[in-house]
Every structure is written in C-alpha cells, then in structure tokens.
Task: structure prediction
Amino acid sequence: MGYIAVKGGTHAIEESIKRLKYERIHHGQTIEVERIKAGMRGLVDQVMSESSLYNETLAALAIKQAEGNPEEAVFLLRAYRSTVPRKHYSKVIETEQMNVERRISASFKDIPGGQILGATTDYTHRLLDFTLMDETDVAVQEWLHYYQKESFQGDEEQLTLPKVLDYLRKEGLIPPCENNNMEPDDVTRESLDFPSSRSQRLQILTRGETGAVTSLAYAVIRGYGALHPTVGELRVGTLPVTIDHPTDAGDEDDAYYIGEVKVTEVEMLMPVTVEKEYGKKEMEFEIGYGLVFGQNETKAISMGILDNCLEHPTPDFPSHNEEFVLYHIDSVESTGFISHLKMPHYVTFQSKLDSVRKTKKEGTKNEEGQEVKSG
Amino acid sequence: MNTAYNFAFFDEGSKREIRRATLKAIAIPGYQVPFASREMPIGRGWGTGGLQLTLSLIGKNDVLKVIDQGSDESVNAVNIKKLVSDTTGVATTDHTTEATLIQSRHRIPEVPLKKNQILILQVPLPEPLRYYEPSESETKKLHAEKEYSGAWLMLFEQIMKYGSMTTGADHPVLVHDRYVMAPSPIPRFDNPKMHESEALILLGAGREKKVYAVPPYTKVVSLDFEDYPFEPESFLDKHCRLCGSTGVFLDELVDEGTNETFYQCNDTSYCIETLNEVEPFGVK
Result:
C-alpha cells in the first residue's frame, strides 16, 4: 500500500547516492574534465548557454558529474552560479568587435567581407565515421601538425567585419536602428514582470532550454505564428569583455580586459507590410535578435525568431504571448517542476480523497431524495 | 560542514535581498512579493522557495526542523535538512517546540506554534487565481482591484456541480480582509491554524519567484458561503492507531494482512511525543 509515510529517509538517500556513483563509474574508467572540454564542445557550449555561466572548465566538470545529461549539468551550474557574488558588470560590448570565425548571410550573397563558412556541420554527410572508433592522441596530434602548417601562416590576425545589416541600412533597405543604452534589467537579480522589457526577454531567451526555444520557434515558422524570417546574418566568434576601472568608470582607456567569450549572434530579417499615408502599403524589414554563448546556431536563430514574435504580441498564437514563452522555456524551472511530481503527495491526496468521498455521499443522498419524491 | 560555500550557501548580498522581499511581504499580509529567486542545489518545485527563505533567515543559534507532508524523516525533508546543516552547521530537531525555524511542505504541525518560531511553507503554485486565469499580468490586476469574484464563482460552481466545495488542499483564504491567498497545499484541516497564529508564517515559491507572509495575529479566513460553510477534512470517530490521538490530521493506511483501513497521525513527531507522554502511565 503506497500511503505509508516514507521512513528511514537518511539511510535511503545515502545508499541511493552511492548507487548513483556506482552507475557513473562502474565500467572502471573515468573521463577527465580536460577531455570533456576538448572533445564535447557542442555539449559544453549548450550547457554554458543554458546555465548563463561562461566557464568551460566548470561546464565540463558539471557534465562529468551529470554523466553527460545536459538537464542535470545545467542544474549544477545554475546552483553554483547562485553562490557567486556579482562584483562587476561588463562594459557594453559592440559585436562589430567580434573576432569572426564564421559568418554567413542567407539573405545576401554578396556581403562586404564575404561569406565565411568556418567550422560547421551544415555540409557534412551525417554518416557515422567508424574510423573515430580507434582514433588516438598521436594520430590527432599528427593531423594537427600538418593542418597548422597548411592553414596558419605567421601570426593569426583578428578578423573583424562590418555587420550585414548596417550595410543594408546604408542602402535604405531597413530602417535605421537607434542604440538603446538603457541599463538592462537583470533577470537573475530581479524577477521577471509583465509587460516585460526587451532586455528581460532577451535574457530569458538566451538562457532558455535549447530544445524548448527551438520547438517554439519551429512552431512559429510552421504556422503557429505570423512570421516568415530569413537569416540576415549569423556569425560565430569571440568577443572581448572589459570592465570599468574601479575609480575611473567610463574611461575607455582605463577599462580592464578580463577575457573573451565565444558567442553565436544572429540577426533575422522579417518582412512586414507597413501602412503609410492614404492607405498606401509598403514592405519593410524588421529584425529579430539572437545571441547565445558558444556555437549554438539553431538556438540563436530560434531566439531571433521568438524575440521578434514577442515584440508583436497577438492573442492568435501562444508563441507571441510573452508569459507563455518566457515562463516555460527555462530548463531548471520546467524540469524541476515536472520532476517534483515524483515527491510524495500523501497529504494533498488524502485531502482530495476527502472531497471526492464527500461528493459521492452527497450524490447518493440526492438520489435518495428524488426517489422519495417520485414515490 | 561544507566550507567550500559561504555560511548558508548564498553570498551575503543574495541573503539580504531575499530578506528585503520578506520584510515587504510581512508588511503587506497575503500579498505576493516578487523576488529574484536563485537556482538552488535542489530541484525547482522541490522546496526551493522555502529553502531560500530558510537560508536567508538562519543564524548560528537557530534550531531547524524540516517536515515534508508531516514527516521529519521523509526523503525530501531529510535532503533539505542535510543541505542546510551542511552549509551552516546549525542544530536540527524533530521536536516542534524546540525549533526556531520550521520549514514544511504541505502541513502545519499539530503542536501550536509560539511567537519565537517562524514557520516557512514551501509553495508550488502561489497564485490562488491561477485556476481560472493563466496570465500573471491579469491576476496581478485582479489582486490590485480586489476583484475576487472569480474565486467565489469557482467555489460556487463546485457546489452547483457536486453539492459541496471540492477543493482539496490549498483552499483559498482571505488575509487581513484584503488579499486572497493560496495557503500552499496544506490540507483544509490546517487552514484555521493560520488564523491569529502566534508564529510568523512565511511562504516561499522558488520557481514562481514569490514570497508572501501571514504575520503573527493576522486574520485569515477560508473562503466560504453562509449556507455552505468551509469544512476541514473530517476524521470524525477516527483516532490514531499508535497514540490514540483524535482531532489531528490522520493518514489513511491499509493493513496488508487483514485489508482493514486504519489511521495514524500524519504529524510523525507529534505522534511520537504523544506516545512518550503516555508511556510513563504504563500504557504501551
């Protein structure tokens, strides 16, 4: 009978934790954090992005501890994040400063600086490469040696490129965009409120669970939304992060460089019809913006789509409803609440049982009453 | 004790911020104060709201009790207690009267609480109006305008359909004649304990990022109608098989051998204490 209150919890938990450790290592092998960092770039990037914590080593450690389960790894990193005091806010980063590794536009073939494919799986054949079964460190290093000789001559230089959309703005194809220099709201320091600010929306979207963000954006372009977007520009590269000098805030020259972050940035173009005077209609482009830690291209594009959706709320589609989207895409929140259903609900269930029994009793009473009347 | 982390897990700034939200909650009884809920080492929905309140309040001299659905030994209660004592080193207890902080999921202890105690309830869904209004910005407006006809209508419809109010746990209450509040899924049996409580009652919803409070000696009334009064779960003619108590919330159990239904105190520490009191008189 399942109602018996759970006893002996302490002992049970200890044994369960031991068993979990056993499951992680029972093959008698352990995977080094360095190797996870070296070989699981996609997972490390996804975990850093969903955790909103940029640290490859900690992400790799979380992945190791979580046995590669991203939901659990993100959970670990987010919890760690709660214990770290917020000492600085970085200075505004202009993405024109990105050291570009990959940059494409699906809207314009001929963009200044050209299309740079960089590292992408887009044009690989998804055939299992069985040679990887016995790839060795020696073979890898040998390959690297030749590749470096072939591809890198002299010092590798920084590659900064103008933004595709700026080029289009100059051409007058999209309306100019004013810089919004308002202090952004920090969703990890103040909870989300509605109607939300764009900075809140962008933060929730960028730390959203990859699958959830992708699913909702997919629903939008499949029909449950009012958008037909094109990738204006997608770029992957590193951005320098600087913070103000503690006593001399604002001075560019005195700012401290504290490192760089790798990000995927996407600017989506959405054609819209705008009504001008005398009912004349014109086509214009609007923008959806996506920026995520690491190389997470599908998520960045999806974020761009949802950003634009939420700029245009309509009751027709849940994907355009900010509460629907922003409240349900967070990995830690959704997985936490779903999994809490595993906890005992004995009291609440007993309480419901009482109500159900009461309605049954009342029901029989009513029926009897009617019988008396009809008789 | 785990010294890799700050006392009570959080950095001091985070604790202060949660306390500020808590003070506001105490100042406006029953009002849900938004706060920047942190991600915790336990799952969202597993008591992170209560845990954050506990960690923000706990000091070195506190004595902590954690219960989950009435039980001190339930796995989740043990887990939370372990985390708090690992990061603070404070003493824990099962005895309700000894505790200064009591974190609980879905029960208010049977032993009446005193003014030197704080009860912290874990809340899964803090919005009492969510049942009929899914949008947060809408429910905020309804609260602001004290527009609660939906809540009454919900109960009215239950009476029309089933002949009685069919709320299980979490029967809505009106706090200080102002805010309708979700008492967290405590059984209806526990609702009256909130009324004029000597102890401060704090309610924390981690995933939904809300803190709210019932300050000591505050009027808390369960919503009902004159002709259909509020009814707690009934344990009439039933008593605890172990300690003989009546007038407490009982778990319904089935004897595996005889298939007979029997009852037992849900509040396990109350049951044990009652047994210990009875024993000196020779009753076993």
Notes: Chain B is about 25% helix and 20% strand. The CA atoms of residues 30 and 179 of chain B lie 5 Å apart.
